[in-house]
């Protein structure tokens, strides 16, 4: 099992708690990957450099041949979203109004018809009716949602600060010595890991690259309260511009597959996406970028419903400790 200590991260805090003390843990060297199956090199021209906005990622996207524009890859969003400013500048036709289930509630918004979308040289030929939201609230020109990622795999390389949208492999390779492979189930296009636990109790974990801080529901909070008695109220702004008050706590330990994350910051609130996924009555967590960035790489394969975490090297980043227990 891999033990990790997550750095502190939040959006808008009414009062910021003290950072947890990092545990001192010996880090044995990882097994050599020499025996692992060779991976086909990725053409450097197909790689996308990304910038962080509150620990999220922005990548260049072409909309109907124009651009590139800076979009956030959001594995927690069912639909691709475009900013109202970009839609207006491109003169995109207005589509039907739709309901968007954001972290702060369900709101009706207009859509814009996107004839074509190109991400990492992977075109989507079918037109998209993308919800229009304000650019300043998005922190980007748009969001790349699951409707544009469903038939592909997403590789996030934190060491080299690049992201790559890949075609999913039909034949999956065995895990390398420095990898942990976690199998998930697909619900409305999202990958949900059910082999996850807190304090010995099973929980559901949704991988969400669109949120900077992990978010838990009340059912999970009831488990956490036995070990973390007090929290700090924080306010989080959603992509619609509305504000959400959440109970912010440092969760001592969460395990996901063979991975154990220690001192994980979590904002607790019963947000609409939990109900949308029928996770509102059982302990559940949207695992954000604050936790995923602890790894060298994360590869999310949607068709094969698997996630590959490449373990940190024995030299770890500041604010994080790791060890592997075989």
From TrEMBL:
Top-level taxon of the source organism: Bacteria
UniProt xrefs under CDD domains: retropepsin_like_bacteria
KW Hydrolase (keyword) present: yes
PROSITE patterns (UniProt xref): ASP_PROT_RETROV, ASP_PROTEASE
One of the GO biological process terms: proteolysis
Residue span, Peptidase A2 domain: 69-84
Pfam family name, one: gag-asp_proteas
Signal peptide segment: 1-19
InterPro entries for the chain: Aspartic_peptidase_AS (IPR001969), Peptidase_A2_cat (IPR001995), Peptidase_aspartic_dom_sf (IPR021109), Retropepsin-like_bacterial (IPR034122)
Molecular function in Gene Ontology: aspartic-type endopeptidase activity
Keyword Chloroplast: no
Keywords assigned by UniProt, alphabetized: Hydrolase, Signal
Protein's UniProt name: Peptidase A2 domain-containing protein
Highest classification ranks of the organism: Bacteria, Pseudomonadati, Pseudomonadota, Alphaproteobacteria, Sphingomonadales
